[in-house]
Design brief:
Elements: E1 10-14, H1 18-28, E2 33-38, E3 48-53, E4 56-62, E5 74-79, H2 82-93, E6 98-99, E7 104-106, E8 112-117, H3 119-124, H4 129-139, H5 147-155
Parallel strand pairs: 1-4, 5-8
Antiparallel strand pairs: 2-3, 3-4, 6-7, 7-8
Helix pairs in contact: 4-5
Length: 157
Amino acid sequence: MSGLKQKVRTCFWFERGGHEAAKLYVSLLPNSQVDAVFEHGSPADPMVVEFTLAGAPMMILTAGPHHKLTPAASISVLTRDQAETDRLWSALLAGGGQESQCGWLVDRFGVSWQIVPEAMPKLLGHEDRAGAERAQAAMMQMKKIDIAALEAAFAGA
């Protein structure tokens, strides 16, 4: 389909809006760009958009209502800190996205995302199992992950 070198890429089936979604996604993360657009019938809503998202090859196929997006497939982003977590969370919810639990959300296009601060897997996987369990219990009560609250729960505060 294109001259790209990646043998494997993740593909999301969209009913409509695939090119708009890809442009939003690549604007949010460094090392991201739209690589190729293949029109088939509608220049306003191209059939295939290949893009790189933070170095990972992706593709959106805009091909009608035959298949629906579900949380069974999601994009997981490891964030450096609370500021990056907050920025991505807000940008992905803008325009009609919906929060879920434990760092999950669905954007306005219907794609599920996991916004995971680097601190979270470190705390949940820590050798101090009691602290890790407290952090996990705190995480289970959150929508967007609050790093300071996780750290406080881990510490027993």
